Amino acid sequence: MIQQTLLDELMTLVEPGKVLTDPASLETYGRDWTKHYPPAPSAIVFPKTVEQVQAIVRWANAHTIALVPSGGRTGLSAAAVAANGEVVVAFDYMNQILDFNGTDRTVVCQPGVITEQLQNFAEGKGLYYPVDFASAGSSQIGGNIGTNAGGIKVIRYGMTRNWVAGLKVVTGKGDVLELNKDLLKNATGYDLRHLFIGAEGTLGFIVEATMRLERQPNNLTAMVLGTPDFNSIMPVLHAFQNKMDLTAFEFFSDQGLDKLLARGDIPAPFETRTPFYALLEFEATTETRAEQALATFEHCVEQGWVIDGVMSQSETQLRNLWRLREDLSETIAPFTPYKNDLSVTVSKVPAFLADIDAIVTTNYPDFEVIWYGHIGDGNLHLNILKPENLSKDTFFAKCANVNKWVFETVERYNGSISAEHGVGMTKRDYLTYSRSEAEIAYMKAIKAVFDPNGIMNPGKIFH
């Protein structure tokens, strides 16, 4: 743990009361949504300005003290976990929207701005921030950028990376850099902005972000379709994509629906139960577009790809249909799931899921498996639920035993071991399944340039 004299020095760098060392704060701010590593930070510090962040980083360099960034702490890779006495830098008080440009359709945010806060601000300006996921009400923009967050609209709008016009960062050396300066076109050498997107705070801290906005979608409409098997979902995707531009295409298994319906607060989409469900969304801008969607649904039924389905007729029904997918992660959280966040190219998804499912069911015949994900962009979430009679440590150890086979399959399909949750600590030992040794060596060399003393979120992405 850090000596009291150093903590006293840290306290002089921020406003009074903005350094916490009480057990409750250490527990709260030292973790994220993962349960693999117990939090053990030395202190939590809350900067309010860029200058304070810069002073904290320089202090940490002077004393070789590790720093861990903390945003909404909704991550699923332990990238925001302080497990080894680090000082947590929490951005809760850097939470202001600083500027808006209606002509360029950009907004300047501090890193602690909540995703939903930005979405609501955009809506108030008649615009739209399209990166969306279940944790939008608590995740922060800095964390979204640090993990290149994806979510439910990637098929139409892409990842967070697509919406970052410019960044202001404090590097691991304590320098302040302004990256790209919000330009659409800028062919002046390396775009360092993209190094910080997805870097999980290992190169430096994001202290301001200029985010692009989009026009608001019109009359969003969702359909939930029940399919007889997983292989039927991809023909459904192709059928709808051939007729219209989708804003989302998700899937979930019947086991997941069981868990949701057991809550008692979400209605079933229709009476029929099927092994898998697809949820798609589109803009019903005209009556013709809605009729086209229904005609495509009927075609899918005729082909045997769909057994039953429903289309939203109101905002309330749209929200309820989306809850079937968005509430899944929260619903299964009490079951202590072992999560894998995998991706392959869309065309390989059916064969890939079948191979992974065979590995899991063969090795864990008594474990309950919940599948869901962003199938329209090739991202599958595999969730293995902990049986009541197993301890957390025993359960995680059993699941880890099979990771080698799961990730060897990912490698064989040229896929990713982490589609959108990042690497953090939970995936760092498996990085070689998605990145070559040469790539990892270059990544380490880049980190050494920005963070020569190794103080920025050490132990994340790689050892």
UniProtKB/TrEMBL annotation:
EC number of the protein: 1.1.99.39
Keyword RNA-binding: no
Protein name as it appears in the record: D-2-hydroxyglutarate dehydrogenase
PANTHER family tied to this protein: D-2-HYDROXYGLUTARATE DEHYDROGENASE, MITOCHONDRIAL
PROSITE patterns referenced in this protein's UniProt entry, alphabetically: FAD_PCMH
Protein origin, superkingdom: Bacteria
Required cofactor(s): FAD
UniProt cross-references to Pfam families, sorted A to Z: FAD-oxidase_C, FAD_binding_4
Keywords: FAD, Flavoprotein, Metal-binding, Oxidoreductase, Zinc
A single MF term (Gene Ontology): metal ion binding
One BP annotation, GO: respiratory electron transport chain
UniProt record similarity statement: Belongs to the FAD-binding oxidoreductase/transferase type 4 family.
Ranges of residues in domain FAD-binding PCMH-type: 37-216
Keyword Iron-sulfur: no
Enzymatic class: oxidoreductase
Catalysed reaction equations from the record: (R)-2-hydroxyglutarate + A = 2-oxoglutarate + AH2
Annotated organism of origin: Pseudomonas matsuisoli
Listed InterPro entries: FAD-bd_oxidored_4_C, FAD-bd_PCMH, FAD-bd_PCMH-like_sf, FAD-bd_PCMH_sub1, FAD-bd_PCMH_sub2, FAD-linked_Oxase-like_C, FAD-oxidored/transferase_4, Oxid_FAD_bind_N
Known partners and oligomeric status: Homodimer.
